[in-house]
Amino acid sequence: EAQAQAERKRGRNVRAQKKNAPLEPNPFGDSFTSADGLVVYEVTNFVINDAGQLAAVGNVTVGGVADTFTALVTPTQASCRILHLELGPLELDILGLVITIPDPIIIDITAYPGAGNLLGNLLCAIAGLLDPGGPLEDILEELVGLLRRLLNLFG
User: I need a surface site. Which of 69, 119, 141, 155 has the fewest CB within 10 A?
Assistant: First the structure.
């Protein structure tokens, strides 16, 4: 413990023995404990710093050594899933040039709306147009009905 406190005074980060231990929320309060019990975070307050940003203030205990922390709280923006594409292994033959990609490829495209995100705003606005219950559903149903009536007249 004395060595961990000395490392902290030198400005070094004291880490738990088990790296990347997942944190499990405590349902009885605002504290989180790592699965191995070595790291405990407890949020005690939220404050607005001098730059006008929201920050969480609290206590952290690592391997029995306690300290305080302040961390910026960054809100997450809603996102719109534009495309999820999974391609299996590929082999392309382009005029005798053979390109082989043996492993599957997964492509995810996500748009984030918000101030200054012109393309994200545009794609999120049109992403759900054809979804069930979307704004174009009634128009498409009317067009399908009109086409059926025309087919019945001429067919």
Answer: 155
**Spatial CA neighbour of 23 closest among 13, 35, 31:** 35
Mean pLDDT of the chain: 75
Single-letter residue type at 113: P
Q: Give dist(CA 19, CA 16) in Å, integer.
A: 6
Q: What number of CA atoms fall less than 13 Å from residue 4's CA on the CB side? A: 12
Cα dihedral 128, 131, 133, 134, rounded to 10, equals 30
Beta-carbon contacts of 18 under 8 Å, excluding residues fewer than 6 positions away, are 34, 36, 38
CA 146 to chain centre: 43
Cα first-last separation, the chain: 87
Give pTM, 2 decimals.
Answer: 0.37
Span 76-94, mean pLDDT? 87
